[in-house]
Amino acid sequence: MSDAKIDRLAQDLLRINRGEMEVSEAKRLLQGIDEVELSLAEQRLLEKGVSPEQLRGLCKVHLEVLDRQVQDLKESTGPGHPLHTLISEHELILGFIDSVEKVAKAFSTKSSWSKDAEEERLLEILVESAYELVETEKHHQREEEALFPAIERQGITGPTRIMRLEHEELRPKKKALLETARKARQMEFETFNAKLQELSSFIAFNLREHIFKENTILYPAAFKAINDPFTWEDIKRKCDEIGYCCFTPAM
């Protein structure tokens, strides 16, 4: 795909998201391009200063196509394929984020410890969800040590570099959230709540953004670029050696 065509598609995406294109025309345009073309256009927008947050706020018709793209990729690979496993884990990780946010929202309305059954339930959910988020390290390790090197050998290096940096940025925040959850009763309420709100907000925003970019840009590009089945078998073997998360769906 030529640079000029990528630029045109990127500009069309901006027009769609600004409401400058009729819905019927937008659907025809988006349904006529493949996942890699869409991924390259989104990457071009990121390179030109469009924030990942803005990409996540894309109009409904574009989001429908992105969701279809992720589900099509998952179906195309099938259970046991490294990308299918990673996408399935992403779906569960998003649920853990939702749980942390709900707990943080509940505590944001409180001014002191109540030490009742409901509060205990919230803390239990927080500990469990924070633990699951820390458990995502196996997910990231499989990406960094099995998938990313194979992608980089195809000449795709920018996105993997960014993903590694984001893993490093998120790692201490997730550990801090789990520590805060486990030591909640040892803290003054104001101290606990301040840490909870700061950490949950950071993790929710940045981890959702991270997953969005991997699902809609990196994974489709990897699937297109790596067309040798033996390479995918090698990636799977390395993933098996590294191991899986406690929440990884059965393959």
How would you describe this protein?
The protein is mostly helical and 251 residues long. The protein has two domains: 3-75; 82-242, Four Helix Bundle (Hemerythrin (Met), subunit A) (Up-down Bundle), CATH 1.20.120. 78% of the residues lie in helices and 0% in strands. Helix 8 runs antiparallel to helix 9 (158-182). It is globular, with a radius of gyration of 20 Å. It starts with a helix and ends in a 9-residue tail after the last helix.
User: What is the CATH top level name of the largest domain?
Assistant: Mainly Alpha
- How many structural domains are formed by the residues? 2
Q: Could you give the distance between the termini?
A: 35 Å
Percent in strands: under 5%
Largest sheet: none
Count of alpha/pi helices: 11
Mean pLDDT: 90
Radius of gyration based on Cα positions: 20 Å
CATH homologous superfamily designation of the largest domain: nmb1532 protein domain like
The backbone outline, from C-alpha atoms, is: globular
Name the CATH architecture of the largest domain: Up-down Bundle
Helix content: over 70%
User: What is the CATH topology descriptor of the largest domain?
Assistant: Four Helix Bundle (Hemerythrin (Met), subunit A)
Ranges where pLDDT stays below 50 over 5 or more residues in a row are: none
Order of helices and strands: HHHHHHHHHHH
Instruction: Report the strand count.
Output: 0
Protein name: DUF438 domain-containing protein
InterPro entries: DUF438, Hemerythrin-like
Domain DUF438: 24-71
Domain Hemerythrin-like: 81-222
